[in-house]
Amino acid sequence: MEDDDPVVQEIPVYISKALSENLYIYQYPVRLVGQKRKDLKVSNVSIKPKNKIVRLELAVDTNSDSYCVSKGEQIALNTDGPQEPRESRRIKTKDKEKVKTAYFKSGMMDKLVFQSNSPCTDTERYAVAILQDNELHCTPIKGILQFRPSHSYFDKQDKRKGEKGKADSDDEDNATDQQVNVKFKRFETDLAKKAREKSYEAISQRIAEEPWYDALWKKSDTHHAELERMKLFSSTSNDGSALRLGPTEYIKALFPHLNDEAETTPFKKLSLQEKIKEILISAKLMTFSELLKMVRGRAGGDVSDVSEGALLAALRGAACCVRGVWAPRSQDLYTRPASVPARNMCAARDHVLYLLAHHKYVDRRKIAASVRLPTEEVLAILRSVAKFTPNYGWELLIPRDTAFEEKYPDVIEKQNMFWEAIQRQFTDMLIGEPTPRRQRKKSQRDSIGSDSMMSPKSRKKSVSEDDTDKRRQKKSTTGGKRTRKVSSSSGQDM
After folding, report:
1. Count of CB atoms within 10 A of residue 415's CB?
2. Of 220, 395, 415, 445, which has the fewest Cβ atoms less than 10 A away?
């Protein structure tokens, strides 16, 4: 950059790695110029996971004026052979297997197939970027797939003709003797074996032998696709303080070993985001106005006049919002080894915050059944963000900040989408873990899904959960036919 070239604008750049291992770019080199992405109607998707090959089936409008019905039926006849008429096929069930294996199941050419080649994995210099609110979020890509039309139905036609010709020749020469050829496998060295495995013929054979697996295709305007696009935004951000250093200080920060031994290392100055983390970890929950006052009081110097916009930008990577109230992130709290893995503790706390964000009151027993953690750990998580109200359940420690929600609705909307994505990850983690037999029986009575975590109804006859459990224990000790065991952890909410 020349000295007389002025800087027009400076924007922060963030790196997101949430989708870096599963993000692929689809390219269509032979697609028509006038054809738009919305016009493509994907009817089925299949993949080969080991070789990373994708096949898309695009539906063809057979009712269009430019579609030749007779030609479409002729192509289907040459590919799959004669089939039952479409009207009678709905009634008869004899040829179900034949229809299932048919390439064109409707009896006419009703689809176009696009198949990718092996992905290009040399993509270290490429990324997908999104520019929003003067912030550039980049996600590295895993590979690039190029899709081209696949005419494999012609191969099926040739195979049918070959099988038919072979069957005719077998009928003619059924009574004649056939010559049998015997082949012996020659000795192959390790070097020749490795060369053969890397050959084009061997690679093509491995690709052909791997079966196709059906995949799930979601349109770009669905809620599921919107949640996946949210992962393109970085959840952690910094204030770019390293870029504000002078040339000498920047070189020293990159190469600390070049500093003079007699020179003392300066004290590390905390950034705005790090100050917010310390405050929220100590306070557990804070409103936006209280946090702004606290930051301005602790900042001092050149950042004592922190604006609301700067605080919101720093909060994006340092905290999470629940009903307008800000709390520290779970991964910043559980950083030391403990009896329960940090991953499980973070997932359990995020699940509790998700429920508090959608319901005023939550039930500890249902939470314990869903997160599958010891009672002491569940109580510790609840007491850090909520308080117990008799006859109702657990609610947030501080009231809802409606003023912040009305002033910044876009922030609240993004936080709600963030909680939905977190809940999806929590559900996927539960599906991947085995469920103990004892808890599986309990789940038949109380659902552990997010929809069942509604606030419990008012129990007006009981004073507290502790008193209720004591009465149950007293009944079980007095005897009688109708006795039952009570969990020892049910009286520990207080």
Report:
1. 22
2. 445
β-sheet bridge partners, residue 46? 55, 214
Count of helix runs (H) and strand runs (E) in the chain: 19, 13
pLDDT tens track for 252-305:
776 665 554 434 444 456 778 888 888 888 888 888 888 888 887 754 444 456
240 backbone φψ class: left, alpha, beta (φ>0; ψ -120 to 50): left
Whole-angstrom distance, CA of residue 398 vs CA of residue 381: 16
Residue 237's nearest CA partner among 310, 176, 314, 308 is 314
Q: Please say whether the beta carbons of 138 and 128 come within 8 A.
A: yes
- Provide the pLDDT for residue 61: 86
Predicted confidence at residue 433, as pLDDT, reads 55
With CA atoms as reference, report the closest residue to 393 among 423, 428, 363.
363
Q: Using CB atoms within 10 A of its CB, is residue 413 exposed (0-12), middle (13-18) or buried (19+)? A: exposed
The residues, any chain, with a CB within 8 Å of residue 206's CB and separated by 6 or more, are: 51
Please tell me the pTM assigned to this model.
Answer: 0.46
CA dihedral for 344, 349, 354, 359, sign (positive or negative): positive
pLDDT for res 373: 87
